[in-house]
Design a protein that fits this description.
Largest sheet: 6 strands, mixed
Distance between the termini: 47 Å
Order of helices and strands: HEEEEHEE
Number of helices: 2
Helix content: 25-40%
Amino acid sequence: MRLVEQARSIFAELGYTVEGTGPEFRAERAWKVVHVNTVLEYGELPTSSSGKFHCFVAEPDDADALEEKLTQAEPSYEWAIIVVDGDDYQVERAPPGPRVSA
């Protein structure tokens, strides 16, 4: 359950309003709603009907396998992975930014 608490804390510190309990919750700020899934044990990936933005919070040992699974699945939503290691975290994979053309 520690990973869930850390995920909730990260999003709260980033200024999101966190709603829901358990390993899946919503984080909302301004116009953006992010569906957050903590990766303890996962089977099926969320469907696109559960939102446009998804963030997966994982421990270091799970990050590579999760990224590979998401890359192969090519979900229709934007996704990111945050890796939590102790009290530290880093964004391992963020959704692509807006495209700029010249």
